[in-house]
Design goal:
Length: 192
């Protein structure tokens, strides 16, 4: 089932998400719905708070970035061919490496993209959709997408990394998003 994406300004996007009870019988269906929602919205990652669920769950598929690279941009990424997984109750163990800038966007903040600087490697411990625990390091575009989605379960958004002047410059666009004054090709719900 395709779920609506929660828009910027919704309180759920600013709360630290709660751990998931792995015995939840609806968890597998929720993960399947998140995959379907993410693909329908043309995303490469989606966190549970973005579908109004305040739980520590996100999905990432960077395989499609490499598969759909027509201009060769991914040749410089060290994580080919990408990675696909659900991340349940993820906890970051370490973020390190050099800083690199990339033009990020977010399904909850449509039509705004900004260059965001992040470290290039993240190590985290998480459970996958089969409830197997992993501790693994990710880099390249996969590491970046994971950090972006992890921020969602910590109540952070990519715009939080912008300098104050840049945030001031996009304030009107952010206000329009929170008021529903935006057209996108996927379902969204806006704060009341």
């Amino acid at each position: 089932m395709i779920l609506p994406i929660v828009a910027y300004g919704s309180p759920v996007l600013r709360n630290v998400a709660k751990d998931i009870n792995m015995d939840d019988p609806g968890l597998s269906d929720l993960i399947a719905d998140m995959w379907e929602t993410m693909y329908r919205s043309n995303g490469v990652g989606l966190a549970a708070p973005q579908i109004n669920r305040p739980i520590r769950l996100f999905v990432v598929d960077t395989l499609q970035i490499f598969a759909n690279d027509d201009d060769g941009e991914t040749k410089s990424y060290p994580d080919a061919p990408g990675f696909k997984s659900a991340f349940i109750n993820a906890q970051i163990d370490e973020v390190n490496g050099k800083n690199w800038s990339y033009n990020e966007g977010c399904l909850s903040i449509p039509k705004i993209r900004e260059d965001i600087e992040r470290k290039d490697t993240v190590t985290l411990t998480y459970y996958d959709e089969n409830f197997q625990q992993h501790t693994r390091s990710f880099n390249g575009i996969t590491g970046r997408v994971i950090l972006h989605e992890y921020d969602h379960i910590e109540g952070k958004l990519f715009i939080d990394y912008l300098k104050p002047l840049k945030r001031t410059l996009i304030r009107r666009k952010l206000d329009d998003i929170s008021k529903g004054k935006i057209k996108v090709d996927y379902r969204m719900v806006f704060p009341k």
